[in-house]
Design goal:
By secondary structure, this protein is an alpha/beta fold. It has a single domain, classed as Thiamin diphosphate (ThDP)-binding fold, Pyr/PP domains (Rossmann fold), CATH 3.40.50.970. The chain contains nine helices and nine strands. The strands form two sheets. The protein has a seven-stranded mixed β-sheet with strand order 2-1-3-4-8-7-9, sandwiched between helices. The radius of gyration is 17 Å and the shape is globular. The model has no long low-confidence stretch (mean pLDDT 94).
Length: 248
């Protein structure tokens, strides 16, 4: 029988610790496929922070280092500058990147560091119990916003893509989602472009992935996909936010 698909070499053959219906496993599968397809596995270095991604080094079959909460862009900057021939990426959640790490991501983007950032936005702090995050939607209930996010006291969700797009150092930004197969394909295309930009030395590339968190949302896995489509897309619009290669 002819094989039509093989497991990516960049993924280890091990079970992961993610909750049922979580989007992390799918995105990491995509990352592994992209790295294999670009032929850069032997020189790729990933950086993972505190959060659901903390055990990423157990799943990828290439070098992965840990960083303090919110600091992956700083660690990635150091590694890339010391080893410019390596392909360096950060893999971060919204509580990490958009809260404690806001300063780090802003300045790495503004400097135009030649790294790739994959930003998982599930609108909550996933690992620590589903608390309200900087990306939690208005009215969305979490363990620390029992009646729903009140924008009069908690402010509005951060649109990180749009914020970073104002910075001169940014090469490419796109927001994608995981709620159906067509959008999973778009997610892979965006991540591959972000990595190709780094291979080509173009500078800072950033992909935001709207991802389900059924356990902390209190939804079944299928319903969490509907939630992305029916709720999250109203606030976080999909598409290319910035791409200097398309500028005239």
């Amino acid at each position: 029988m002819k094989a039509v698909y093989n497991a990516p070499k960049s993924l280890k053959k091990t079970a992961n610790s993610y909750c049922p219906g979580c989007g992390h496993g799918l995105v990491q599968r995509i990352l592994a496929e992209v790295i294999d397809e670009l032929g850069v596995r032997e020189k790729t270095i990933g950086i993972a922070p505190v959060g659901c991604a903390v055990f990423t080094y157990d799943y990828f079959n290439f070098d992965v280092t840990e960083a303090p909460h919110g600091r992956p862009p700083a660690v990635a900057t150091a590694i890339k500058r010391c080893l410019p021939d390596r392909i360096v990426f950060t893999y971060q959640g919204d509580g990490d990147l958009a809260s404690i790490g806001t300063n780090e991501i802003l300045h790495a983007a503004n400097r135009g560091e030649n790294i790739t950032v994959v930003f998982i936005n599930n609108a909550v702090y996933g690992m620590t119990g589903g608390q309200m995050a900087p990306t939690t939607l208005p009215g969305m209930k979490t363990t620390t916003s029992r009646e729903g996010r009140d924008t009069t006291t908690a402010g509005f969700p951060l649109r990180v893509c749009e914020l970073l797009s104002t910075l001169e150092g940014v090469e490419y930004i796109e927001r994608v989602a995981l709620f159906d197969p067509a959008n999973v394909i778009k997610t892979k295309k965006a991540i591959k472009k972000a990595f190709q930009n780094q291979v080509d030395g173009k500078g800072f590339s950033f992909v935001e992935v709207l991802s389900p968190c059924p356990i902390n949302w209190g939804l079944r896995p299928l319903d969490s996909l509907k939630y992305i489509k029916e709720k999250m897309l109203n606030y976080f619009k999909l598409g290319i936010i910035k791409d200097r290669s398309n500028c005239t």
